[in-house]
Amino acid sequence: MNATISEVKNYVGGEVTIGAWLANKRSSGKIQFLELRDGTGFIQGVVLKNEVSEQVWEDAKSLTQESSLYISGTVREDKRAPSGFELTVTGLSVIQIAHDYPITPKEHGVEFLMDHRHLWLRSSRQHAILRIRNQIIKATYDFFNDNGFIKVDPPILTGSSAEGTTDLFHTKYFDRDAYLSQSGQLYMEAAAMAFGKVFSFGPAFRAEKSKTRRHLIEFWMIEPEMAFCDHEMNLRVQENYVSYIVAQVLKNCANDLKAIGRDTTKLEKIKAPFPRITYDQAIEFLKEQGFDDIEWGDDFGSPHETAIAEHFDVPVFVTEYPTKVKAFYMKPVPGREDVVLCADLLAPEGYGEIIGGSQRIDDLDLMKKRYEQFNLNDPSYKWYLELRQYGTVPHSGFGLGLERAVAWICGLEHIREASPFPRLLNRIYP
Ligand code: 4AD
Ligand code: MG
Predict the structure, then answer these.
(1) Residue nearest ligand 1's atom 18 by CA
(2) Which value does ipTM take for this structure?
(3) Mind listing the domains of the chain with CATH numbers?
């Protein structure tokens, strides 16, 4: 019977054949222990010299790290084995003997590992992280589908910028100019006016010259957008969503969290509602903490975000930032032109901003004024203004950076491990 390692539990006492790679091998005299992996798990294959043919014994001996093979054996329950099962090998067919696999069980430097990212993905730690990433993606789809949202896919090639022009990736679109999407938001606003509640999940590109442990050049973003939704309702969706993905990871990825050594007591505290402070209060707080490099009106740097977040052991919303440090589409706080109805959600433990969101300007005249101020009166933004012209409604939305969320939930030192093939300032290989 063909089976994967995760399926062998269904065949105790029976014989299975598994397609696998050799992760490691030990031998002592007349017995060889093969540590096998197939992507679904690990299992030990035991080869007994007296019980297999000469050929099988010799083939097993020839196996090197990452050699590929089909292996047959009888499934035995073994409480001491990490997977709970063992394979008493009966047959073995080598697909390829791998020579000089570069990633050995010894320690390697980060640059070396990044150069071999295509192989590093096979290690159990990277596996656990990317499985948790997958769980967050699944929980995202479940949360939004269960709450009446429709997934709508915004374009990747765009003629306009959503988040300002400083970090746009430029490309040619035949004989015209185009950009890689920084955010699907503007299109999601159009979709919200058609469907009410929508969400997207897609890549975003930022040509940011930042070399930090929080920045990727290419990352994935989840962007919900809701019609008839104000700032307050927007924050409630965010805290419920973040609490839900953390709960799902705790419930379904216990082994993966253990494999990467994550302190789960910190995650168990993540439950809505989350605390909130205004930008005004945050500035005051930072001054009290002795930060003299920040004035009202400045955007926060990561030391500021970390100082604020350290004050709480759950994510915290910083609300109502100055209008001038935020995007053109954010709605001012009623009665106060200098701050907007927005929030950044800062993760605990120094992981920084995981969500940026806001209530959007729904007033046609104010939006026209912003078009003047931001020089948006070119044909590529015409359609966005029309959303305020034909049945405008209060609406809000947000964007969660997937890799930032993965880095925080997994407790990673650097965001690079949160992406299978990270694009960094100095790296587009492999
Ligand atoms: O705060 P940002 O720039 O907001 C937007 O793009 C809005 N249009 C979203 C919306 O309201 N629909 O980005 C949103 C999130 C950030 O909070 C962060 O988690 C992530 O995207 N992000 C990055 N993640 C990794 N590397 C980068 N360079 C990132 N830039 C933003
Ligand atoms: Mg932001």
Answers:
(1) 401
(2) 0.99
(3) 5-96 (2.40.50.140), 117-418 (3.30.930.10)
